[in-house]
Amino acid sequence: MNSSSSTLFLLCASLLFFVALASEKLPEFSSSNTEKWGSMHPNYAACSKGKRQSPININTNDVVANKTMKPLSRKYHIYNATLCTDGYDTEVAFNGRGELIIDGRTYKLKQMHWHTPSEHRLNGVQYPAELHQVHATDDGNRAVVAILFEYGKPDPVLTMLKPQLNELAKEPCQGGLERQVAIPWFGSSFLKKRPRKYYRYPGSLTTPPCDENVIWSVLTKVESITKDQIEALKAPLCEANKIKNARPTQPLNGRKVQKYDGK
Ligand SMILES: *[C@@H]1O[C@H](CO)[C@@H](O)[C@H](O)[C@H]1NC(C)=O
Ligand SMILES: *[C@@H]1O[C@H](CO)[C@@H](O)[C@H](O)[C@H]1NC(C)=O
């Protein structure tokens, strides 16, 4: 592994980042026991004790329009990327620069990954898939842009990634071990869409350690995906996570979801 691919490896393993930092190995989690995450390890305590957990159901009649919110300001310059999985989800780690600015704070693009079916729900409806574009500040605060997918036309990003997805699926899941495939070119144009409307709320990571330092922006526009593309996303995952890798919705505990209406 050369130095640039080991940098990618670290980006790729963001879910396992805390494992690398801590001297002891944190327990592997799966979607079959989401209710037990909080008691698996002290570092995972927020998963059960937290008061602003994600995902949530967004009741669209109950959102608050906020006129001072701004469109999502994003600048991405991506060259290469790596497709990878730890068996829980399928992820793209980016080689390049990207930033999302929220309330004057800069969050750098780290990776994006898919959940099948969706984690967030709109009016109780769970969609076939959800994409999370994960950004973080240098001091570790996160901003995630979530995009829901319903069945329809193929998603162009997944059409582009088909060869790498097939390659990744060739190696079977090995108990949380990282597997990766290089994506020689990943144009920023795929991420340049300027979504206007979105829902915003304060939440958490949807996997252990369930850190409560995430600003969520869930786009109101539902995109489309095919059944084959969903199967390709699931193929590299460990068995329980193939069935689903979506955490159930969490209580709002008084949180209000805000909406940016695009003006
Ligand atoms: C409305 O949005 C602005 C900009 O994001 C934010 O600073 C403010 O706290 C929000 N208003 C309320 C009532 O939450
Ligand atoms: C992208 O990857 C290719 C193949 O590994 C490499 O030759 C090229 O320099 C990379 N480009 C950038 C901008 O990192």
Task: Report on the architecture of this protein.
- With 263 residues, the protein is an alpha/beta fold.
- The protein has a single domain (3-18, 27-260), classed as Carbonic Anhydrase II.
- The chain is 19% helix and 33% strand.
- It is built from eight helices and 14 strands.
- It has helices at residues 3-12, 17-21, 37-40, 46-49, 156-160, 162-170, 227-234, 239-243, and strands at residues 57-58, 64-65, 73-85, 90-102, 105-115, 121-122, 125-126, 129-136, 142-151, 179-183, 198-203, 214-219, 223-225, 258-260.
- Strands 2, 3, 4, 5, 8, 9, 10, 11, 12, 13 and 14 form an eleven-stranded mixed sheet that branches. A three-stranded mixed sheet has the order 1-6-7, with no helix packed on it.
- Strand 3 and strand 4 form a beta hairpin.
- The longest helix is centred in the first third of the chain and has 10 residues, at 3-12.
- The chain is globular and about 50 Å long.
- The N and C termini lie far apart (49 Å).
- Mean pLDDT is 88; it is low at 1-10 and 14-23.
- Residues 66, 68-69, 103, 258 line the site of one 2-acetamido-2-deoxy-beta-D-glucopyranose.
Number of domains: 1
Q: What ligands does this structure carry?
A: 2-acetamido-2-deoxy-beta-D-glucopyranose
What overall geometry do the principal axes of the alpha carbons give? globular
Terminal residue distance: 49 Å
Share of helical residues:
10-25%
CATH topology: Carbonic Anhydrase II
Extended strand count: 14
The CATH architecture would be Roll
Work out the radius of gyration: 17 Å
Q: At the fourth CATH level, what is the homologous superfamily?
A: Alpha carbonic anhydrase
Strand-and-helix sequence, N→C?
A: HHHHEEEEEEEEEHHEEEEHHE
The profile of the biggest β sheet is: 11 strands, mixed
Contiguous runs where pLDDT drops below 50 for at least 5 residues: 1-10, 14-23
- Give the overall pLDDT as a whole number: 88
